[in-house]
Amino acid sequence: MTAERPLCLQIAALGGQGGGVLTDWLTEAARHAGYPAQATSIPGVAQRTGATTYYFELYPEKDPPAPPLFSLFPDTDDLALMAALEPTEAGRALERGLITGRTTVITARDRIYSTDEKMKAGDGRVPAGRMMDALQASAAGLIALDVEDLARRSGGQGNAVLFGAIIGAGVLPLGPDDARDAIAAGGKAVDSNLAGFEAGLEAAKRGGDGPARDPDLVYDPVPDALAGELDGVPEALRPIVGHGLARLLDYQDAAYARHYRARLAPFLAADEGLAREVARRLAAWMAAEDVIRVAQLKTKPGRLARIRGELGIGPDEPLRVYDYLKPGAEEVAHVLPDPLAKAILATGLGRKGIGLRLPSAHPVGFGLLKLMAALRPLRRRSHGFGKEQAAIEQWLAAVTAAAAVDPALARDTAELAVWARGYGPVRQRGLDRLAGLFAHWDDRLKNNRDGLAGAVRKAITDAREDPDGDCRSG
Amino acid sequence: MDGGTPPNVGQMRRAKGMERSFAGQVRSLVLGDGETFHGETILAVTKALLQSGVAYVGGYPGAPVSHLMDVLADASDEILKPLGIHFEQAASEAGAAAMLGASIHYPLRGAVTWKSIVGTNVASDALSNLASAGVVGGALIVVGEDYGEGASVIQERTHAMAMKSSLPLIDPRYDMARVVDLTEAAFDLSEACNLPVVMSLRIRACHMTGSFQTKANRAPAHGINNPLPGASFDYGRIVLPPSIYAQEKAKVERRLPAAQAFIRDRGLNELMGEDRNRPQGIILQGGTYSVVIRALRRLGLADALGRSQIPLLVLNVIHPLVPDQITGFLEGKESVLVVEEGNPAFIENQVRALAQQAGLRTAVHGKDRLPPAGEYVAATVRQGIAAYLAHALPGADGQAVDAANGAIEAAGARSRDSLAGVPVPPRPPGFCTGCPERPVFTALKLIMAERGPLHISSDIGCNTFATLPPFNIGNTVLGYGLSLASGGAVGPALGQPVIAIMGDGGFWHNGLTTGAINAQWQGHDTVLIILENGYASATGQQHVPSSGSTPQGRPSVVSIEAALKGIGVRWIRRVDSYSVEATRTVIEEALDARGQGLRVIISDNECMLAKKRRGKNHQAKARRQGKPIRKSRFGVDESVCTGDHSCMRLSGCPSLSLRPATDPLKDGPTATVESTCVACALCGEAAHAARLCPSFYKAKGLANPAFWDRVKARVAQSVLSWMGAS
Q1: Nearest CB to B469: which of A119, A138, A243?
Q2: Hey, which bits of A71-111 come out as E strands?
Q3: Does B449 lie in the same domain as B370?
Q4: In the A/B pair of chains, how many CB contacts fall below 8 A?
Q5: Residue A424: its pLDDT value, please?
Q6: What's the rounded mean pLDDT across residues A98-110?
Q7: B416/A18 Cα distance (integer angstroms)
Q8: Residues sharing a CB contact under 8 Å with residue B121, sequence separation 6 or more, in sequence order
Q9: For position B380, which CATH number holds?
């Protein structure tokens, strides 16, 4: 009696993740255990970004009467195991009909975002949670692994962790010792690969780590001095309003935070959706990052320690940090009083900016940043501050006017503040777009509300899908 | 390591070529009689060449066959010299094909390799002449068929080339021992019919693992260690009248019939199946054998050991066909299915013609059951065979096939439906982290944002990836080294200087003559940007003439700049590719230098994959010795990033990614630099050049510092913490 079919395994990885080495281990482990097997790959080109596919078949019977027939391609409803080092790559196999009720799926749960997702402004990410749900619904079993964490803790690489999980899933007739011998036979970084393997093996045996979730939003508590400002704020809005108050106190001072509360007051009676949108957007806009704010953020305690962590060096090992800053006439004018700012801008000099690599982990560079941050009290009288405040008022007026006649349009109008983002030319482009929309707002609201609503919706969509549209034509 | 500092060119040259080693593979090439080889097919084929007594091997690198050359270059001392085999990486596929000229007059066996269809196209001039002249020494061309998933070239068949030039074409069944046998037989076949023979291997087949019993390598009768007695002349081998007429006649009257006789007598094609007399059958290319058998198993007509209930004629040689073999198979059959990948359907049409000539009434199916275009993957072939057999098999047998196929398709459909519209993001290949080519396209994107669209002719190589998001730069791709030539007629019509992008590989392959010399000669108003990264990077960092050394490691001095000066180009600038600002400025200068003919910018920095590999070795050594290790990377201050992602639209760097924000005021995920960063500085440079934002920083550290460095770090740290930093 011969086995009816080989066990088929597809491995999906991205270039550079070590899918080839993993496949070599599998082939070696099968040989060690005495099972006929065959592997192949579409390794992609030499580049390190695209999807790569490895395919492996093992005949679950030692010494068959004739050599088994192996295929180089997976077929629909024929995979025993799908292993992916990225969840949407498992999703790709699902889309191709390769994952069905006979397939156990092992996947790294952390996303590696594609260029398409990254290019969108705001959040262009594929909903990975729904993809995990689809995998769960279709597959015989789903083992989602925190590969990154398992690799870090064990000191191994992701491919070794996945190898451990493949063996641990128990779908192939290969034991841990076959796998360990295969790693040893590979002869490269044997100790760390074995450590990664063991971590993956254990993780799969306990059923994986479950799907990943985005970290929760963290609301800063309202500062004690401003606690009273939450009086009259509906319970559901208190976290976001409190967060806004805290942010603006840090950004400027208590008076400025109170100004935020006062601006918000008329909207608190409106529907909660609108009030929340205004509360969030208004706080973000009022805390617009000017040179002073950037200097303040770059000198916050803990920053250098965080950078040391990223670099993997200890507290008494030399560190240099170079901040890429490019202040130009506009940035300088932004923090100067109005007449002076206008005079500088009128000269047309220095518009391209001066590219600095400020050594901010050096006492001199750090001191300079501290000095900039200390200009905070002067901000209120600056040219840029006035400009932003005027734009904010224009936006708030538009929202108010819309709210009186069309709640849905009011919410969309509140969301338009998404365009108040970025720095330099990016920010200017956004503010220009808003100014264009808000011109003759009341007239359009009265005479062509549908047209206006369409223009607002389009602006919101463009903010994500076509953020550079206005400048593309040059 | 610090990718941000451009390497000293001299140092870079000296160190190159030491990044990779194929020592493990070389060991399996020296196995002797009765030993067992384990490895990938392309290496097995390399071993088969050595077992066949080749006197010379050459080729041009290209996936999926570059490995053959990589390993042999590494095996120079251990294998090639003792056996007296001449090896060279030719300047192009045309050069590689021309190497086979050694077999026209002399009993020298030789093999060359390249990627098809593109390489075969480039080689076609030499191939036509070679096939016409004929060979006396066995000549084999191993082509990697870059077709289907993972392909990076136009989708065409090598078959057409084989037919027009009368080249026997082997498409072997993917069983490693069989592939090795057929490789050895190919030389005998070539000598039997005096034609060069092509063996075509698909991507997955090249990378297939397996084993076979080896034979000892054979030294060629004549070669470096035992020269030929002398040069020979035969006007019959020259491609001029009247020889050409005699050669054409010989091909059809003597050589192809000799090939057919050899194929039949040596049993190169195979008849399979348990019940040969069944009135149905399948004629298939050897390379589709395993998907056909797999399909039959899944439809209930074969077992896991490959025993088929349907008769099969497996064509391991798909050109020329052996007519009586085909008609013999058709006799007594109601119908057959021809499984033939790609188009046109040469085999199917020949089978139909042969059936008609023989007066057979057998119905010949093929592209009416299988798709006319596209790769024949498992599901495609299964559906085609099911469509054929559901009707061809009588009653219940046909219904059973239909039901089996229906159940499989239904399971697949349920899976697809479960996604319920969740998009799977496309993930094409792109520039690596730290790629020195990427910043050039950042600069071009910035220039176009200001000046409006420019016509940019793209080339073959990593640079072609710029046509993908986020750059979408490159209006045409016409072939390797042809970017400059392909812009020739565009510039005058557009009234603006056009830009051509070319890698150093493309420059030496074809770009110097077809592009640069012609543009200089014609006085084209055009800008050529040469991305000199030191390697043919897209196929795995093979050396190019300007790498500074040959694939075997012999130093050489061939320079792009010197070549350009030699043809009289005056406007040549070299620029550090990682400086976006400098690159932008120099491109703008070149665009504005109207009336100065060809302007060339050499964008200079080593391929990061190669550089990184070397850096890793250095670091590992430093770590073992307890020496200080420099570390550097970029970072983003999350609190400063506003989530607009302009930086990503100007970069596409794999290490520049998204991080879900925890601040409720953020509008989606912020940018983050992952630990895979190599500190090439592009993100910071782009932020500067486009005045994006102040989020980026470069961090440099020294792990395991010397005593004094540690003391100084402590002092600096104390001062900083007094100032409020931590």
Answers
A1: A119
A2: 81-84, 104-108
A3: no
A4: 417
A5: 86
A6: 96
A7: 28
A8: B161, B479
A9: 3.40.50.920
Task: Give chain B positions within 8 Å (CB) of A373.
Answer: none
If pLDDT is split at 50, 70 and 90, which confidence band does A44 have? Answer: low
Q: Ramachandran region of residue B285, left (φ > 0), alpha (ψ -120 to 50) or beta?
A: beta
Q: Cβ separation of B416 and A94 shorter than 8 Å?
A: yes
Q: Best mutation site among A17, A23, A75, A472 for testing chain B: the one with the most B CBs within 10 Å?
A: A75
Residues B396 and B339 grouped into a single domain: yes
Domain boundaries, chain A: 7-205, 216-287, 296-381, 385-474
Number of helices (H) and strands (E) in chain A: give both, helices first. 22, 8
ipTM score: 0.95
Residue B171 is which amino acid? Answer: D
Q: In this predicted structure, what is the pLDDT of residue B703?
A: 94
Domain count, chain B: 4
How much of chain B is helix, strand and coil, in % rounded to 5?
45, 20, 40
End-to-end CA distance of chain B: 25
Cross-chain Cβ contact B701/A357 below 8 Å: no
Separation between Cα atoms, residue B574 and residue B559, nearest integer Å: 13
Q: Which of B411, B450, B675 sits opposite A77 (nearest CB)?
A: B411
Cα atoms in the 13 Å half-sphere on the side-chain side of A151: 16
Residue range of the domain that includes B341: 270-414
Q: Supply angle C-alpha A264, A269, A271, rounded to 5.
A: 100
Tell me if B219 is assigned to some domain: yes
My answer on whether B248 and B276 are in the same domain is no
Token pair for B578 = 């990682």
Determine, for residues A319 and B713 on separate chains, whether the beta-carbon distance falls below 8 Å: yes
Question: Residue A55 CB: number of other CB atoms within 10 A?
Answer: 24
* pLDDT one-digit tens code per residue, A328-383: 888 888 888 888 898 988 888 888 888 999 999 999 999 999 999 999 999 999 99
Q: How far apart are CA A422 and CA B666, in angstroms?
A: 12
Q: Answer yes or no: do B246 and B104 share one domain.
A: yes
Q: Tell whether B566 is covered by a domain.
A: yes
What's at B406, amino acid-wise? Answer: G
Judged by a CB distance cut-off of 8 A, whether residue B719 touches chain A is yes
B311: three-class secondary structure by DSSP: coil
pTM over 0.80: yes
Residue B336, class by beta-carbon neighbours within 10 Å (0-12 exposed, 13-18 middle, 19+ buried)?
buried
Amino acid at B508: W
Output the CA–CA distances (angstroms, integers) from residue A234 to A194, A237, A238, in the order listed: 56, 6, 6
Q: Which residues of B touch A118 (CB under 8 A)?
A: 470, 645, 648, 652, 656-658
CB proximity under 8 Å: A 117-156 to B: 117-127, 130-131, 134, 137-138
Residues B167, B91: one domain?
Answer: yes
pLDDT at B14: 37
* B393 and B506 belong to one structural domain: no
* Per-residue pLDDT, A383: 93
Q: Which residue has the tokens 């052996």?
A: B322
Same domain, B173 and B238: yes
Query: Does some domain include residue B432?
Result: no
Q: Which CATH class is domain A7-205?
A: alpha beta
Query: Which residues of chain B are modeled with pLDDT < 50?
Result: 1-15, 18
Residue B39 lies in a domain: yes
- Hey, are the CB atoms on A71 and B378 less than 8 Å from each other? yes
**Chain A residues with beta carbon closer than 8 angstroms to that of B426:** 114, 116
